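Course exercise 7: structure representation. Students receive a sequence record and must write out the corresponding structure in C-alpha cell form. The form below is the worked example handed out in class, using DUF8091 domain-containing protein (227 residues). Read each field label carefully; the graders check that inputs and outputs are placed in the correct fields and that the protein name is recorded exactly as given.

STUDENT ID: A-19
EXERCISE PROTEIN: DUF8091 domain-containing protein
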Amino acid sequence: METSLHQQLKAHYAGPDGELEVKLGRYRIDVVRDDLLIEIQHGGLAAIRDKIRALCKQHRVLVVKPIVAKKTLIKCKQKGGRVLSRRRSPKRGELLDLFDELVHFTRAFPHRNLTLEVPLVEVEEWRYPGHGRRRRWRKNDFIVEDQKLVEVTHVYRLQTHGDLLGLLPANLPQPFCTAQLADGLGKPRWIAQRVAYCLREMGAAKAVGKQGNAILYKTASRARRAG
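STUDENT ANSWER:
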C-alpha cells in the first residue's frame, strides 16, 4: 500500500501542473511535469534500474530517493487506534547512506538525461502491535501502518561525476586508499570501500595501483558527464 509519505512527495514534485500516475508504454510514471518524468523511490534503486535506463534513452528523468534523517515512532493500541506513545528513533539517515543503493545503480547513473535528487526528510512512523493484545510489546513486534512527511530538511541533486566527487573529503590525497577515505569521511572502512566501488564503476575514479594490499584510487575530472 502506498504510504502518505509517497503521496506527499508525489504531490510536492507534481506541483500545480504535474500529472500523477501516467502510463507511458509499458511503464507507469509517478509524476510527469512538462517533459520531465519523475520517479519517487523509497525502496531499493535496483528495483527501478532497468526501467530508468530504458526511459533515459528518450526522456529526461528525475529519480527522487528520500533518506529518512529523523523519525518519530508513534505507537498505537491497534490499527487506527489511540496513540499510546511517541518517541524519537535513535536511527538517523545521512547522505552517505545513498551509496548503499548506488552499488546497485552503477549501470544507470550518471547519464546525461538523468538527475538523482536526494531529499533528507523527517517523518512520523505510525505503528501498531503485530500480534494479539495480550502479547507484550517487543522489539520489532509491530506493523508499520503508515509513514507521514513532517519536513524536508535538505535536498541534494546529483547529475555528474563531479557531483559524486563533491561528496568526498576536500583534503583527500591523490591517489588514495580506502583507509584514507574512511578517515576523511569519519566512517568505517567497509563504507569507504563501498563508496570507492561506486566511484570506480561510475567512472568518477579509477584504480591506479596498489600500496601493499591496498588498492590506490585517483579521482577523475569533475567536469565529466556520462551518457
